[in-house]
Amino acid sequence: MALDENVLEKGILNVTPSLQTVNTQAPQPSFLHSHTLKISLFVSLLPNPAVMAVLKVHGSPFSTATMRVVSALYEKGLQFEFVSIDMKVGQHKSEAFLALNPFGQVPAFEDGDLKLFESRAITQYIAHEYASNGTQLICPDSKKMAIMSVWMEVEAHQYDPHAAKLCFELCIKPMLGLTTDPAAVEDLEAKLGKVLDVYEARLTQSKYLGGDCLGLADLHHLPTLHYLLGSSAKKLFDSRPHVSAWVADITARPAWAKVIAMQKS
Amino acid sequence: MAVRKLYGALDSPSTMRALASLFEHDVEFELIPVDFQAGELKKMPSLSPFGELPVFQEGDLTLFESRTIMRYISHEYGKRGEEQVYEIPKLQGIAAAWIDVEDHQFDPPASKLIWELVFKPQKGLPTDEGVVEEEEAKLVKVLDVYEERLSNSVFLGGDKFTSADLTHIPSLYLLMKTPVKRLFEERPRVRAWYRGVMSRPGWEKMVEMVEKVRA
């Protein structure tokens, strides 16, 4: 991906108010938050902390890669701690964060003593380790899983490069007071349109991208989709009936609503 | 046994990745060369909706995206005791993260350097030294992280050779023929690691197939 993902993330964070609270676990009555610390740590008191290792996500609720991981956790109904990383002050390049992700990009993830980074590797880990929790996000059959894996790579290599750049032009630049480049938008929309043509054909044969069941291949699209649906690029999805139905289906999921709710603090 | 076919182009790094994986796992297959430049792939849209190589077929299963082919082969055809994946999700999670590191961190500068230093000269186009300098600086940062990683881990993905290492084979093969080689040589653990990768049977057989065509 030519666009540095952190440029996109930083752009998003430069224009949003500093997070004061993020309600990660609505039913739990008490959580800790601090207004003064650069690192905002929100601890959800688990009913049996000794029984389960704590899952932690270090990132920003506005970062597409962070949202990708959080969506998997919500789909699985897993409790987790969200550690907010303030990218405006370069916290993602701090020694403490680099110990979690040596490439200095959000998100980073912990499950007990396991430390992981790369959002799509994290979601795959969650889907396998917690296969019996919540929504099934992978296929036990190896050939069906191979097909889903194809469309996971397609999301990362064909869809995301154009989608992320289009997000930058249409959503981030205006918020930063920069001018959207109409020629770039036209070019990117044409390229993304060609990808969506392939998706349209695929979705006439398959209910979801990865197969007949919803899975990671679909979920991975949600974060950039969310931003693009709020822009003029929405037309690219609306104009393709099967793509439009698929988008409506996956964005209506209750777990996804919880991810978006984290942004409204 | 289902017949296996790999549609590919022997000068393409993606095809090399699939070949290395097939050879590492001793999987029998037939290579069907596709002349990408002559537009042969466009005649087979059902095989590859994005018009890319390689495409792997096994019976009625058709896969594209070289890293998917690599992952499928490693999970399906692991040799007992020499699997290049982990069964335990926590260990496989780490290996999977480093497969994505190659894809998202290593490959962008590596593939630009391959374009400038290998493919452009082959096409009679001039190398842009400014780009080379820029991309080498980016690759150096990645290799510094690799050097540190390899101080805690025998291989990139864990304590054994996995797809996290194999996935680098095409770029290593092409970059070792260029001055970029020095960046790998200058870092002792990276040097030991890449030399280890080059001694793999998957490497040797992939190179043999690729270079036989050129001979």
From TrEMBL, chain B:
Domain called GST C-terminal: residue spans: 88-215
Q: Give me the Gene Ontology terms describing cellular component.
A: cytoplasm; cytosol
UniProt cross-references to CDD domains, sorted A to Z: GST_C_Phi (cd03187)
Report domain GST N-terminal positions: 2-81
Quote the PROSITE patterns the UniProt record gives: GST_CTER, GST_NTER
Output the Pfam families linked to this UniProt entry.
GST_C, GST_N
EC number(s) reported in the record: 2.5.1.18
EC class, as a word, reads transferase
Enumerate the UniProt keywords alphabetically: Cytoplasm, Detoxification, Transferase
* One GO MF term attached to the UniProt entry: glutathione binding
Q: Which reaction does it catalyse?
A: RX + glutathione = an S-substituted glutathione + a halide anion + H(+)
Q: Give the GO terms filed under biological process for this record.
A: glutathione metabolic process; toxin catabolic process
The subcellular localization recorded is:
Cytoplasm, Cytosol
Q: Cite the InterPro entries for this sequence.
A: Glutathione-S-Trfase_C-like, Glutathione-S-Trfase_C_sf, Glutathione_S-Trfase, Glutathione_S-Trfase_N, GST_C, GST_Phi_C, Thioredoxin-like_sf
Checking PANTHER family in the record gives:
GLUTATHIONE S-TRANSFERASE RHO, GLUTATHIONE TRANSFERASE
**Which family does the record claim for this protein?**
Belongs to the GST superfamily. Phi family.
The name on file for this protein is glutathione transferase
